[in-house]
TrEMBL record:
Residues 160-162 are annotated as: G5. Residues 130-133 are annotated as: G4. The keyword DNA repair does not apply. Its main location: cytoplasm. GO terms for molecular function: GTP binding; GTPase activity; ribosomal small subunit binding; small ribosomal subunit rRNA binding. Residues 69-72 are annotated as: G3. The gene is era. Residues 48-52 are annotated as: G2. Monomer. An essential GTPase that binds both GDP and GTP, with rapid nucleotide exchange. Plays a role in 16S rRNA processing and 30S ribosomal subunit biogenesis and possibly also in cell cycle regulation and energy metabolism. Pfam families: KH_2 (PF07650), MMR_HSR1 (PF01926). HAMAP family: GTPase_Era. It is found in: Cytoplasm; Cell inner membrane. This is GTPase Era.
Amino acid sequence: MDEIKSGVPDEGYRSGYAALLGRPNVGKSTLLNHLVGQKISITAPRPQTTRDQILGILTRPDGQLLFLDTPGVHGGYRSLNRHLLRATRGALESADLGVLVVEALLWTHDDAEALRWLQRAGIPLVAVVNKVDRIASKGRLFPYLQALAERGEFAAIIPLSARRAADVERLADALVPLLPPAPAAFPEDQVTDRNLRFMAAEIIREQIFRQLGAELPYDTAVAIESYQVEGGQQRIEATIYCRKPGQKAIILGDGGSRLRVIGSRAREALQQLTEERVWLGLWVKQKEQWSEDHHILRELGYDD
Ligand SMILES: Nc1nc2c(ncn2[C@@H]2O[C@H](COP(=O)(O)OP(=O)(O)OP(=O)(O)O)[C@@H](O)[C@H]2O)c(=O)[nH]1
């Protein structure tokens, strides 16, 4: 019997939740996408693109990591901020492990705030020092790492580039042994627990960010009004909410040209994701106080 038992592959298997925390734009979404090997979180060169908590799943022979992405910890953002903070708090409550993501050679008030949040959770912490590829002289990194080690108690401090596969693998190697012993919670081919409705809103939002560039109205949000699957076609209707009339005009573009580009790019991405034909109807609505309208917030998935 003993012989059979020692051969059981699940022996020593680990599984648990790891919350990723860091200030906006530090590279959390890039890291998450590379960790799970698929695009599940939107990335953009401007801060604050992650509004929801995202679960990314990485299954390895030695364990299963369930990642909780959080909106970047930072101040401002009116009443929506309460919802963002609630999402962050929720992630920390269910986490077995905290991952603080910082940017090499930088330490800001928001980084300190993210660390405080993690420390309050009382879970083992790992620090990821991202974007090391940007540092020309590596000698500058060592004192930074030393200073970081003195800021908190970290099980590991890992300098890396979220864009390099080998680096991301090294991070997973360090995280799995810190998880509690447990069987895998999800099938091994699953990379997220988010449904297509959620993914559709994320993809549309990403295209808004990409098409608007510097003109980006920060205050936009995407609500999926209906999502139907009809005979091999996905039929999606979505509303883009913005706060000011000027923002609506920017999103629409001349004669609606920009909205058409946003729509067609999002449709292509959705077709790739679903491997089915996609019909996408997009509308833009301006509502001064959308982030304080509880009906809209519920449609957006921020439950009270
Ligand atoms: N050079 C370099 N750039 C990176 C690296 N990781 C991320 N970036 C870039 O940094 C920017 C922000 O990355 P995101 O992954 O969107 O950041 P985030 O922390 O999820 O941001 P929020 O969604 O605002 O919370 C993007 O332009 C990324 O391409 C890296 O290792 N090296």
